[in-house]
């Protein structure tokens, strides 16, 4: 039974890593589910405190996944309209154009929001680039969180 749990946990950890670069999968939560499956083995590899800390990290990382693209838009000169466009573009992209919608949606949303605000095409493009930079940053953050979980998976199994 433990071997089956190790395999299922490994599948979730692997899918979590994939989910960091494939927007259709929620990377860090899947990796965390892998740790939960490891908790069912005997002896339990991780303390309750560790699991709670990892859960908090996963929740924070997922929240940042939605916030950082908007912050990137603002950092690169985007207005409130560009930030709203980024958030709307992220949601629309996720719902209607997965998996690439999570990349393209915020960029198009920021661009549209800035143009609606009356910015020049160059200013709007700069804000949209900020949104893209935010996406790259969140991808790296998610990869880091899932890589840490992967490390703990392998340290517990081997």
Compile the SSE list and pairings.
Layout (H helix, E strand, L loop, with lengths): L1 H20 L5 H13 L8 H28 L4 H17 L4 H17 L3 H37 L1
Helix pairs in contact: 1-2, 1-6, 2-3, 2-6, 3-4, 3-6, 4-5, 5-6
Shape: elongated
How far apart are the first and last residues' alpha carbons, in Å? 17 Å
Q: Are there runs of 5+ residues with pLDDT below 50, and where?
A: none
How many strands, what sense, and barrel or not for the largest sheet? Answer: none
Calculate the mean pLDDT score and round it: 90
Helix count?
6
Briefly say what this structure is.
The protein has 158 residues and is mainly alpha-helical. It has helices spanning 2-21, 27-39, 48-75, 80-96, 101-117, 121-157. It has one domain.
What features would you describe in this structure?
- There is one protein chain.
- The protein has 158 residues and is an all-alpha fold.
- The chain has one domain (2-157).
- Helices cover 84% and strands 0% of the residues.
- The protein has 6 helices and no strands.
- It has helices at residues 2-21, 27-39, 48-75, 80-96, 101-117, 121-157.
- The longest helix has 37 residues, at 121-157.
- It is elongated.
- It starts with a helix and ends with a helix.
- The mean pLDDT is 90.
Which key phrases capture this entry?
158 residues, mainly alpha, 84% helix
